Amino acid sequence: MSDTAPLVKIEGLHKSYGGVVKVLQGLDIEMKAGDRVVVIGPSGGGKSTLLRVLMGLEQIDRGAITFGGKPYISANGNGKTSIDAKVRRSIGMVFQHYTLFPHLDVIGNLILAPVKVRGEKKADAIARAMALLTRFGLAQKANAYPAQLSGGQKQRVAIARALMLDPKLMLFDEVTSALDPELVSEVEQVILQLAQQQMPMVIVTHDMWFAKHIASRVIFCAGGVVVEDGPPEQVLGAPKEERTREFIERVFHIQH
């Protein structure tokens, strides 16, 4: 990867459903390797869709995304999206609802992709998995099944599973919104730990405290475009755009 190229460059991204519901309408974002980008905005503003597009889970109508200076995703104009599968494998994503395999225990969930997809030796994968579980305070849950875990434990396992594939970028989509309030901090602490280790990440969240403490940049999206982009103290503390101010005031009023 070139030192000067942005880690992610999104240009003119358009995404609609059925050609009618326009979710992204010309999104432009650049992200450096050290960035921790938090995306905030009203429901339906395109935040989760942006992450799903970045992960290669959604087709796009127009636009292009490069990753580390190399072409990653582009639309060829006839409704088909081209995705470089090799680049996609260097991106990890954690969803709101865990998506763990219920029939596998925790260790089985963690080693499945490295062993089946990458051909890693099972013993090596288990050793790496146990190291991650230990780091996240979950070593004693290695042989438990997802149904035996709390929501916070499931989400920490989901993060560990994504890290097993050594991603160069992590995407987090509302990972604490389905959790009871007392479980939120244990998941946020794990993500803060990753931030301290300089893991590049894009995080969609409604938790403004978390956004303020983890972001190097905050992007406010509404109507499928970037309305405001800047450091957290500016976007959250003294937003320049009226649309951002209205949103921040409403969210802080709800959270207090």
UniProtKB/TrEMBL annotation:
Locations listed in the record: Cell membrane
InterPro entries in the cross-refs: AAA+_ATPase, ABC_ATPase_HisP-typ, ABC_transporter-like_ATP-bd, ABC_transporter-like_CS, MetN_ABC_transporter-like, P-loop_NTPase
Single GO cellular component term: plasma membrane
Location, primary (coarse class): membrane
Keywords, ordered alphabetically: Amino-acid transport, ATP-binding, Cell membrane, Membrane, Nucleotide-binding, Transport
Domain ABC transporter residue range list: 8-248
SUPFAM superfamilies, alphabetized: P-loop containing nucleoside triphosphate hydrolases
Name assigned to this protein: Glutamine ABC transporter ATP-binding protein
